[in-house]
Amino acid sequence: MEYFEELLRKPSIFKDESKLDITFIPKKLPHRVKELSLLSQLFLALITNPNSVSRKILITGKTGVGKTVTVKYFGKILVAISSKRDLNIKFLHVNCRKERTSYKVLNKIIRLLDSKFPKRGFSSQDLLDILIDLLNHQDLHILIALDELNYLINKNDDLIYSLTRVNEGAISGKQRISLIGIVRDIICLNNLDNSTMSTLQRNIIKFSTYSKEQIFDILKYRTNVSLHKNVISNKMIEMISDITFNSGDVRYGLNLLWRASKIADSKNLKYITTDCIRLANQDLLPFSTSDVLNYMNNEQLTFLLAIVKELGKGDKIEISLSEVLKRYYIICENTKLSPRSHSQLWIYLQEFKKNNIILINVISEGIKGRRALIKISDLSLPKLEKNIIKLLNSNGLII
Questions:
Q1: Where are the beta strands (DSSP E) in the chain?
Q2: One GO molecular function term (predicted)?
């Protein structure tokens, strides 16, 4: 307990460090006014003609350009303005990478409306029927934001089709569901049927990448709400902005700012220095990669660790799958983890590739068949290894 007491007595650079968390929804969104205005225009009919229209919008743009935070911010103001007019509208955010299947997405939607609803025991069609009954009973219209929608499209587009058509069969004639789909690239829509694709392509909002100056404005605003006055200079914010601009992901900048502030606190400094920023940047991965790692289970992390360790051995450019497997079996033996089958490991490889962690080059060897060569070119191996081991340790697997 004395450790906490000592830390609580120490002065801190932070005023409110929660406001540097990527899940925090700020009161202002610098440089996304145009997108918020467009969303307001598209969804205005939900206010002016309650339950008479349904909107389906698609938002696209690279990682870290503010898609999710803008949609969540818009959801808050939509619910607030609806409440003022005694309209029953709710905003629900569902991450499709986390939920993965139509069943899990539907169950999540219902549980956001009714926390006591059971997680199992129904078919997907049952869940859809239950959802409609629930909305009719509560006289409720919901705006569902399906984040990282491509993860659902790549597996099964039945739910997307059902949600875009569910209002058509409404006996009451009332429109109960509107949608916002969030994807990095609209090319994933090619996996949908023509009817669903046509519906989603009617209204597309593309988020452009932030300029260096815009990133500075965003980070400056966050420092104002999260840190005490005079603890970080504009020069230091510019330094973080430069690093963030190169990564292309504002979330990376927020994480870097938070870590640099933590380092300054740990050193009992009164302000953030260039050394704090450099130290913070040493162990940081691109946020998109960190996000992917956080969703992996121990089996996936262990297999990826085998790839990273084998590539780091002797500074290799690429390695064969057989080399990875040797390293993987050693790690499994040391950690008492049961090795996955070859077919399952191949699925893991494809997922790593899809998430831009590895590159796979399949070469033909004539009669001998084909051989897969694996490499990691865009990520720091020491950083990647350190982050994987940290996650495994936090999951109870000591490496």
A1: 56-60, 89-95, 141-147, 177-183, 204-206, 319-320, 359-364, 370-375
A2: ATP hydrolysis activity
